[in-house]
Amino acid sequence: MKSITIPRPTADATTNLALDTISIGKQALIFVNTKPSAEKEAEEIAKKSKKRSPDLMALAEDVRNALSKPTKQCERLAWCVERGIAFHHAGLASKQKDIVEEAFRSGNISIICSTPTLAAGLDLPAYRAIIKDLKRYGGSFGMTSIPVLEYLQMAGRAGRPKFDTKGEAICIAKSDSEKNDIYFKYVTGEPEAIYSKLAVEPVLRTYLLSLISTGFVSTDDQIMEFFSKTFWAHQFHDMAELSAIIAKTLRMLEEWGFLESTMGKVTSGFISADEIQTQSYKATQLGRRVSELYLDPYTAHHFCTGIKKCKAVELNEVSFLQLVSGTLEMRPALTVRTKEYDLLQEKSALVQPYLLHNEPSLYDSDYDEFLESLKCTILLSEWIDEKDEQFLLETYNVRPGELRAKLEVANWLLFGVGELARIMGHQEILKHVNKTKMRLKYGVKEELLALLKLEGVGRVRSRKLFHAGLKDLGVLRDCDLTTLSQLVGPSLAASIKQQLGVEVGIVPRGTRKGQLSLKKY
Q: Structure pTM?
């Protein structure tokens, strides 16, 4: 192992490596295991960084204004960026991630402290990959070592060919014993074997329905022939067991109403057609739509069960938010902190009349999963009641980037609910589903939906118009253009009037209604 000497201006090895990287005019990615750790590490390095420039000040302002109302996380990231340091994780808004990545590529940002998500798929000019954490929390297993493959992925970010002729991957060890363990496990160790994901139930049932729905396969023989040529079969070897797993999945899809089967005679091969029969399958209309929507059939069955229960429940937005929050697609699930248990149980009692899937017993094995889905339901419910990102961060420990990811998936799933309801003949719930989608998209109360039909009017402006008494399109149409301009600006005011079929002239400069400034007297 080659030995290098790093100056030690601080007591922290990671900070010293980061400062040395900056001093030699290079860049580094620092990998840690959690989002809070990424933020804290970036702050500690930023405190020692002397890097300042007008470009960094401009970048910090862009980061701060990436959301309509900056959160404490936005302010924290902006403070770090002003000093040429950043953090990066799934909790950042997409715009903030883009700003950080582009600033790193341009050289304005020297250090990014990140969770392992940055290790995959991004080609960045990092001279050093500093891997601080080689363990992560593994649930009931406590802290566990990361796989060798993950180490290689992070180490591989250093010295990318288009940016550098060499790179350094550095792990932080606290003792000689730990250094030796790291060397033999990760540096000289063999990466883990790669296993086919086709055996995972959600993947298998999704692909099986897709193959039948598109007509690629239709009989038992064709299905087995197809799967016998996959990497899964190559690893599995036991075709009899493989056949049993596929048969079980086919029965499940048929029970859920996504497939229908018939018995038919074999018309080819060396065996007489009178002697053997084979099962053939075709997708139902519902099954085809599930496949087209890329829904896990288990999720679709969950939706169908909820839709059938709609007539027995007092429907509102919570009904459909809960329906989508309990799906595999909404994972990773929100962690329920100990202090949240009592709050969620209180909320559960309040929303019981609206739920399309009943709360399990406190002693059931899936009760914790129910609480996680309920937390997601309440989070989304708070969003459509116009709570801002800072409130949701402080109350539910959900960062803006995580919130946006949940909103996007929930909107897609709600579209799926509407499509399945239409096929099942439950058109009466479509207005509820569509209203929930609109409120979720913009994060507004129902009273603002009419104003959101206007292009250029979003969450903040619609609330501003509503507070000014402009509560519907008719009142907006009759509103004086000058008054409207004072609220939303001349350009948008003119656009609103045109959308409402009103011809407008030019708003005179300096014209306004109401109280004038003291300088006018």
A: 0.85
